[in-house]
Write a structure and sequence with these properties.
The chain is mainly α and about 425 residues long. The chain has one domain: M75 peptidase, HXXE motif (A middle domain of Talin 1). The protein contains 16 helices and 4 strands. The strands form 2 sheets. It has a two-stranded antiparallel ribbon. A two-stranded antiparallel sheet has the order 3-4. A hairpin with a 5-residue loop joins strand 3 and strand 4. Helix 2 packs across helix 9, helix 3 runs antiparallel to helix 6 and helix 8 crosses helix 9. The two termini are about 40 Å apart. The relative contact order is 0.15.
Length: about 425
């Protein structure tokens, strides 16, 4: 699939501007239609994940655990392509932490290795292990956690004590419960949670297998309900769509803010360069499953899709329409050509990272001190993302859209601050 995508990228070149003028309303409609499709695909794949989790809980085995893990990886494909809707769309930003918050203090949820440590000044419940504790004290109050429910996760544990690292819900909580900690450092390998962590009776390992299953079930239920809610926001009368289309200039600003902020501060900075600076595999976005390379790839692809107004659904259906690229080509063809070129260049760099992982260099190995080849792979992609951000800013100028502030990152803007 990757190679096919690249073949398509290579043929994407500037052609003459459309004969008919592109209406901004049509551009916004395409963007919203694709958002609805992406979140719908995310919901569909999350339902498959839920079914696989149910099979694991009902009949724990090495096979059902492997199938649940495969379903999680598949569910990430459409979801990561939605991250471009963050930053510019407040409805998405306000919601996103419930489904994709990261990093997380996994000791809040379940057992961890002794090297993990315990409570810290920043997080008093970093090692709470709610799965092992049916009752605990939070903010001076005793919490009854005898029954692990979606409400307990969402209303009590998520960002408990106003600590962002207290992540109790979403993809990454589920990821941790399927893989466990990745204790390989900057060596190859993902988490190695045994299937017996969900076994019954004497076969149960690491204790509390029934409560662990309850937590996994509750987290997958929450993920479904959260995605159902977001699909509705992009429906024809949904709040996200009507907000986007209600003010055309603001709608274009939302698209470009999402593209630029994900490209620069979030992906190039926080998710990629920071890990290289710190040589820290804990900075991997999908660290438990060791699939960060795909997370980055699909984030970058989502940025490209937002500009070109194109998306391939999980069932292979193609969605396309009037695009931001069409609009820019009419007002400033060189700016459009440069951004297309830069978006393509970024996808080439992301594919280089994916290929390297296929050839034996895991993403966390790329972050190891002294791995010059790995650092070059990551930093070449960072440079491409920064370059495409500069082109995004030129498009903002071409469309005369002032007032856009892109997400920044100390790792890009003030490296010394990273080490303070």
């Amino acid at each position: 699939m990757t190679r096919i995508l690249l073949a398509g990228l290579a043929t994407t070149v500037l052609t003459a501007a459309p004969v008919m003028a592109v209406e901004t309303s049509e551009v916004l409609a395409t963007y919203a239609d694709i958002a609805e499709a992406k979140y719908s695909d995310s919901l569909t794949t999350a339902q498959v994940l839920k079914n696989a989790i149910s099979a694991l809980i009902t009949a724990p085995s090495e096979q059902t655990l492997a199938e649940a893990r495969a379903a999680w990886i598949a569910a990430r494909v459409p979801y990561m392509q939605t991250e471009v809707y963050r930053f510019g769309n407040a409805i998405v930003d306000d919601w996103e932490g419930r489904v994709n918050a990261w990093p997380l203090d996994e000791g809040l949820i379940d057992y961890v290795d002794a090297s993990y440590g315990g409570a810290t000044d920043e997080n008093a419940i970093a090692a709470l292990n709610v799965i092992a504790n049916p009752s605990f004290v939070l903010s001076g109050q005793t919490v009854d956690a005898a029954e692990i429910t979606p409400a307990l996760l969402e209303e009590t544990l998520q960002e408990a004590d106003a600590v962002e690292a207290n992540v109790a819900t979403g993809y990454h909580a589920i990821e941790f419960l399927l893989w466990g900690q990745d204790l390989n450092g900057t060596g190859a390998g993902a988490g190695a949670r045994p299937w017996t962590d969900y076994a019954a009776g004497a076969d149960c390992t690491n204790g509390n297998c029934d409560r662990r299953a309850d937590y996994l079930r509750a987290a997958s239920d929450l993920l479904l309900s959260d995605l159902e809610w977001m699909v509705a926001q992009w429906a024809p009368d949904g709040a996200a769509r009507t907000t986007l289309t209600g003010d055309e200039a603001a709608g274009l600003q939302a698209i470009l803010t999402g593209m630029g902020s994900l490209s620069y501060g979030e992906l190039a900075g926080q998710r990629m360069k920071l890990g290289v600076l710190l040589n820290d595999p804990e900075e991997e976005h999908d660290c438990f499953s060791d699939t960060t390379q795909w997370s980055h790839y699909y984030d970058a692809l989502g940025i490209r899709q937002a500009y070109l107004g194109q998306y391939t659904r999980s069932d292979g259906t193609q969605i396309s329409g009037a695009s931001l690229a069409d609009l820019v080509a009419e007002v400033n063809a060189p700016a459009d050509a440069q951004l297309r070129t830069d978006l393509d260049a970024t996808m080439v760099e992301m594919t280089e990272i994916v290929d390297a992982t296929r050839n034996g260099m895991a993403y966390d190995m790329m972050l190891a001190r002294g791995n010059d080849a790995g650092e070059e792979l990551v930093m070449s992609a960072v440079a491409a993302l920064v370059a495409q951000t500069r082109s995004i800013e030129r498009v903002v100028t071409a469309l005369d859209l002032g007032g856009i502030t892109l997400e920044g990152s100390d790792s890009l803007d003030d490296v010394n601050a990273v080490f303070q």
